[in-house]
Amino acid sequence: MIRRYSHQFAERLVFVVLLAMWLATSTVFPAFAQSSTWTTTGSMSTARIKHTATLLQNGQVLAAGGVNSTGFLSSAELYDSSTGKWTTAGSMALARGEHTATLLPNGDVLVAGGLTNGNSQIGTSCTATAELFNRSTGQWTSTGSMTVPRGNHTAMLPDGKVLVAGGLCSDGFIYPGNSAELYDPATGTWKATASMNFSRASAGATLLQTGEVLIAGGNGTSADGRSAELFDASKGRWSVTGSMNTPRGTLQMMLLSNGTALVLGGTGLASDASQFYLPTNGTWHNIQYYVSPPRWGHTALPARRVSTTRPQIHGRTTAS
Predict the structure, then answer these.
(1) Beta bridge partners of residue 239, listed in sequence order
(2) Residues 283-296: pLDDT tens digits?
């Protein structure tokens, strides 16, 4: 069963949710490619789920950590789209899954937190440790640990620093937390910042063109699962914005070139429907485009090749 995940991931990683982010200039809503196909590519050397996939500056993809039938993994590997092959990279110091991986401005990748083998009642613990992947050497080095352990959290890069928010373990293993902190790549240290208005884990986030970070959803109560808020790094504070039309967790969020944020998949009633966030007025819009089949816990990376056609999506859109 685990081996099947490796094959499916390799297939999806080539175009990963090809939405062809070539947007029509006459509308705030995006246009999508009329057709797209999936192509089978090389399989990873190690089967894994709940890992991270990071698009590096040289076009390669770094897959790190995760879990399979042997337990949590410390291994990492690189995918080269020009050859369709994976090569083994250096292993992390700590085996982990459900962590975050953030590409830093200098090309290194920061991996932080996650679930790992531990001595809790369920045999799994969260970690506060963090590591840096050096693309030039293919090796990992330790960096400062977060102020609290957390897994299933969210990370985004605002203004050169890494924002980490929410997740499990920060307020107890079972319940999501609302704490947040910032990593400074210049010093390799973390510092607590203002807490979110809502507790959330497995939320979606993206950096808007305004410089604010939009975070939405997460596995919480029904109300929390719809909620969204903005982090202003210059002021170090969160503000509530419009809520999604339906609750969802373990979702993916991507910034489109016209400044809107696209939400894909996730658990909940809206697992196959897409929604768009408009920063200009803080509203969410449903659109008649669906992820098929419905999915959650998936990976979405920006497509390097986009459609040169601009067909419009027809259908009614609704705002919350």
Answers:
(1) 230
(2) 998 875 544 444 44
CB within 8 A of 107, min separation 6: which ones? Answer: 56, 57, 135, 136
- Between CA 140 and CA 121 the distance in angstroms is 30
- The alpha-carbon radius of gyration of the chain (Å, integer) is 19
Helix (H, G, I), strand (E, B) or coil at 269: coil
pLDDT of 194-218, one tens digit each?
999 999 888 999 999 999 999 999 8
**Architecture of domain 19-39+204-320 in CATH?**
6 Propeller (2.120)
Which fold does the domain 44-195 belong to in CATH?
Answer: Neuraminidase (2.120.10)
CB 171 within 8 A of CB 151: no
3-state SS class at 84: coil
Tokens for 235?
């002021």
Q: Is 13 left (phi over 0), alpha (psi -120 to 50) or beta?
A: alpha
What is the model's pTM?
0.80
Q: Whole-angstrom Cα distance, residue 269 to residue 194?
A: 31
**Domain(s) of CATH 2.120.10.80: residues in the chain:** 19-39+204-320, 44-195
